[in-house]
C-alpha cells in the first residue's frame, strides 16, 4: 500500500459504525492499521463488528441525540486507546418513518425538522467539540463528516435532512479554518445513493432507474466506495486538503440538466 494511505498507529472513532457506510469504514481503517471505536446506538451490532477485530476495536453505545451519551462515548474511546487521531462523523437520524415525514418545507412538521437538526447538527457539533481537544493533542488530527449529495441540489422532498447536511458542510469549513493551525484537518464526503442494506431493503425500483439514468457512471455507490474516500481524507495522503467536501456520487450531481434525455438524443 502507498505509505501515506496507511493509518498505522492511529486511533479513530466512527459514529454509526455498526452498519452501512460506517461499518465499511471501520473495516477499511482497521485494514490500514488503525484501531477503532465503533460508536453506535445499536450496541449489539457495534459489538458484532468490533469482536471481529480483537484488540483493534471496541464497541461503544451512543445516541447522537443525547449529549451525555456522546460525552461518555468520546471519554470511553480515549480512555481505552489512550489517544484520538481520527473522527468520522457518520451517524445520522434514520428510520423509514422519519424519511416519510421529511416533506417539502410547505408540509413540514416542526417536530420532523427538530429531530433532524437535533440529531445531525447538534449531535455532530457535540461529538466534534468533545473530540477536538484530543485531536489537537494528537498533533495530526483529522475529521471526516459524512454529508450527502442532497445538500448540493434542491429536491421536492427531504428538505430537513438535506438542510442538516448543508449545515454540516459549513461546519466542515468552520472547523477546518479554526483548527488548521492547531494540527486538525476537517473534510467531508458527500455520497450519492449508496445501496447499504438499509437502503436496498425498500428502495423503489423506479427510483433506482431514475438515479441510474442520471448517473454518468453505470452504477450506484457501495458502502466501500465511500469508505475509500473517508480513509483517504483521514490519512496523511490528504495532508494538504482541509475544509473540502469530496463528492462521491458517480457524477450524478455534476452534469447538465436533462442528462438522460441528452444521452438518448446523442444515442449514448
Ligand atoms: N446510503 C445512502 O444512500 C447515503 C447517501 C448519502 C449520505 N448518506 C449518509 O451516510 C451516513 C451513513 O448512512 P448509511 O446509509 O450507511 O446508514 P445505515 O442506516 O446503514 O447506518 C447508520 C448507522 O447509524 C446508526 N445510528 C442511527 N441513529 C443513531 C443515533 N441516533 N446515534 C448513533 N448511531 C445511530 C445505526 O444504528 C446504523 O448502524 C449517514 O450520515 C447518511 O446520511 C447515506
TrEMBL record:
It comes from Cupriavidus lacunae. This is SDR family NAD(P)-dependent oxidoreductase. The lineage of its organism: Bacteria, Pseudomonadati, Pseudomonadota, Betaproteobacteria, Burkholderiales. CDD domains: SDR_c (cd05233). It holds the Pfam family adh_short_C2. GO terms for molecular function: oxidoreductase activity. Belongs to the short-chain dehydrogenases/reductases (SDR) family. Keywords: Oxidoreductase. The keyword RNA-binding does not apply.
Amino acid at each position: 500500500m502507498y505509505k501515506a494511505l496507511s493509518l498505522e498507529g492511529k486511533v479513530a472513532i466512527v459514529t454509526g459504525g455498526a452498519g452501512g457506510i460506517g461499518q465499511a469504514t471501520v473495516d477499511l481503517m482497521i485494514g490500514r492499521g488503525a484501531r477503532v471505536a465503533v460508536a453506535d446506538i445499536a450496541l449489539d451490532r457495534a459489538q458484532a463488528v468490533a469482536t471481529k477485530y480483537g484488540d483493534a476495536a471496541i464497541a461503544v453505545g451512543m445516541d447522537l441525540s443525547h449529549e451525555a451519551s456522546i460525552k461518555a462515548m468520546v471519554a470511553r474511546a480515549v480512555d481505552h486507546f489512550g489517544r484520538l487521531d481520527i473522527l468520522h462523523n457518520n451517524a445520522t437520524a434514520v428510520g423509514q418513518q422519519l424519511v416519510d415525514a421529511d416533506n417539502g418545507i410547505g408540509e413540514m412538521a416542526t417536530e420532523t425538522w427538530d429531530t433532524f437538526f437535533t440529531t445531525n447538527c447538534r449531535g455532530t457539533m457535540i461529538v466534534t467539540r468533545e473530540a477536538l481537544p484530543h485531536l489537537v493533542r494528537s498533533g495530526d488530527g483529522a475529521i471526516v463528516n459524512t454529508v450527502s449529495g442532497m445538500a448540493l441540489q434542491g429536491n421536492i422532498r427531504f428538505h430537513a435532512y438535506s438542510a442538516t447536511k448543508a449545515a454540516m458542510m459549513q461546519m466542515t469549513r468552520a472547523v477546518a479554518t479554526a483548527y488548521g493551525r492547531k494540527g486538525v484537518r476537517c473534510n467531508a464526503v458527500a455520497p450519492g445513493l449508496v445501496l447499504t442494506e438499509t437502503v436496498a431493503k425498500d428502495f423503489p425500483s423506479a427510483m433506482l432507474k431514475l438515479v441510474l439514468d442520471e448517473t454518468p457512471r453505470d452504477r450506484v455507490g457501495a458502502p466501500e466506495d465511500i469508505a475509500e474516500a473517508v480513509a483517504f481524507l483521514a490519512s496523511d495522503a490528504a495532508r494538504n486538503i482541509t475544509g473540502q467536501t469530496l463528492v462521491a456520487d458517480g457524477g450524478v450531481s455534476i452534469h447538465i440538466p436533462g442528462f438522460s434525455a441528452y444521452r438518448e438524443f446523442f444515442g449514448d
